[in-house]
Structure formats: C-alpha cells, structure tokens
Specification:
Elements lengths: L6 H32 L3 H5 L13 H8 L1 H33 L6 H13 L4 H10 L17 H12 L3 H9 L4 H12 L1 H16 L3 H6 L8 H11 L9 H9 L2 H33 L4
Helix pairs in contact: 1-14, 3-14, 4-7, 4-10, 4-12, 7-10, 7-14, 8-9, 10-14, 12-14
Membrane topology: Multi-pass membrane protein
Protein name: Carbohydrate ABC transporter permease
Family: Belongs to the binding-protein-dependent transport system permease family.
Length: 293
C-alpha cells in the first residue's frame, strides 16, 4: 500500500532540491564563465563585460591554442600518462586485491594491515624526492606513473568487490583445469567490469590532473604535462609566439586571458566527455564494491 508523503517529508524534499540546485549552480556557473571568456575578445574580458555569455564572439583564442606546439606536446604527454598510468594502476591494484580477497591465501591479513598503514601514514615529501632521485626516476615520466601505482582506498574497494565473487565460480574454473592467470583473465576480470570502470575513472582523473608530482620531479619543460603547462601559462604569461603570425602576436601582447581560458576548457573537456559513457558502470561498481555480505 502506497502511503501519502507527510508534510515534513515534502518540506525536506523541497529544501533538499533547493540546496542541490544552488550547489550545482555554484559549481557550473564558474565553468560557464570560463567558457564564455574563451570565446570573447580581449577587450571584453579586460573591461569585465563577460559573465555567462560570450561578448564579441571570436575563435582566435582556440586558433592560437590549436597552433601552439608546446601546448599540444603537453596535451600528448597528459594523454600518455592517463592511458598508461591507468592501465598500470588497474593491473597493479587487481594483482594485489585479488589474492588477499581469497580465503585460501594465508598471509592476506598481514598484507591488508600493511596497506592500511600506508593509507593512514603517508611518506613525507623529502624522503619521497630522495627515493625518486636515488632510483633515477627524476625528469622521467616514470616518476608520475610508478609511485602511485596502487591507491590504498581503491585497493580496499576492489578487494571488497572480489570478495563478493562466489567461491563456487572460482572452484569450477580450477576443476576445469584453468591456471590462476587464465581464471583471472577469463572469469574474474569479465565479472569485474563495473569496479574496473569505477576505479579506472578515479585513476584516470588523477593522472589527467597530475600537477604536484610533475612539479616536484620534473624540471624539463619538454616533459611538462598539461596542468603544469597551464599553471606556467597562467602564473607567468609564458605564451610562445610565432613571429610570422602577427594576429597571434598582437593577441598575446594585448591580453592573454582569452588564451588562458581556452586552454582551461581544452584541459577540462576530455574528462567531461568520457564520464557519461562510464557513468553506468561507475555507479554500479561503487555500490557493489562498497557492500560486504
């Protein structure tokens, strides 16, 4: 029997809707302002005429960004870090989470405690830098890929998911003569698509936004990822100019704000585009991986 919602429940729903609406606008309107500035003229941006709609619409900011080899190089490095780093993360996390999720592995509790310690007590920056330098990883993209190969939080989520895979499925694979690697590849991983997609998003966003690690361990401008290049662009107005391009030269000297905003949009859009395709797996993976029967 359906019960009629009480007045208190209806009031709560109204205030909840209003709160979420205001919160959504607080997150969306700044992005809309940056988008509008990226399509506006330098004069309109400097005079403060741009709010949520472009003023004196122009494509020149994006034309500059698309013609700047340094920005494209940083963009390519970020794409490489995101793809390769996410693959390393998922392989390493699954390789550790699966064994400690099975009852037959006797040392699993010790491993779990060790991972939990790293989650509570993180290593300071200076020892990390000395370690990276001692291993010869500084000024190398490996410094952005190897140290964070396994996230403790993601490890516990994936372990919780693996623990919910019925033992009967694993046993049937062993009876059929599957090796452990074949069983993981043919049985476990196909069943783990939701949690893999969920954690893949977490890892990919983290790699796409790589900033501090690159700032600490990389000194070569040719290896700067997109976020460091964007910071360099915003903080120092370090905009490379092709002398043969008079329109870009005039634009950069006049005011680089539009170029900065266009770069911000280009750095943000890829993740926004990818997320909707993985949202279904993301929600399912987080729900299943967070419940232990």
């Amino acid at each position: 029997m359906n019960r009629k919602p009480t007045a208190g429940w209806q009031t709560f729903n109204v205030f909840n809707l209003l709160f979420l609406t205001v919160l959504s606008l607080a997150m969306f309107l700044p992005f809309l302002n940056v988008l509008a500035q990226s399509f506006s003229s330098s004069e309109a941006i400097v005079t403060g005429k741009v709010f949520f709609l472009p003023v004196e619409f122009t494509w020149i900011n994006y034309l500059y960004v698309f013609s700047d080899a340094a920005i494209w190089r940083s963009f390519g490095i970020t794409v490489y870090i995101t793809i390769v780093g996410t693959l390393i993360n998922l392989i390493a996390t699954a390789s550790l989470a699966y064994p400690v999720s099975r009852q037959e592995y006797k040392g699993r509790n010790v491993i779990v405690i060790m991972v939990l310690i790293t989650m509570v007590f993180s290593a300071p920056l200076i020892p990390n830098f000395i370690l990276m330098k001692g291993l010869g990883l500084t000024n190398s993209l490996w410094a952005l890929l190897i140290p964070g190969a396994i996230s403790a939080f993601n490890f516990f989520v994936m372990r919780s998911f693996f623990m919910q895979i019925p033992s009967e499925i694993i046993d049937s694979g062993r009876i059929d003569g599957c090796s452990e690697l074949r069983m993981i590849w043919s049985i476990v991983l196909p069943l783990s698509k939701p949690v893999m997609a969920s954690l893949g998003i977490f890892y990919a966003v983290n790699h796409w936004n790589t900033y501090q690690s690159a700032l600490y361990y990389i000194n070569k401008p040719a290896l700067y990822p997109l976020q460091v290049k964007l910071r360099q662009l915003i903080m120092t107005d370090d905009i490379s100019i092709d002398p043969a391009s008079s329109q870009f030269s005039a634009l950069a000297h006049m005011d680089p704000e539009g170029i900065k905003m266009a770069t911000i949009i280009i750095a943000t859009i890829p993740i926004i585009i990818i997320y909707p395709f993985l949202q279904r797996h993301f929600v399912k993976g987080m729900m299943v991986g967070s419940v232990k029967s």
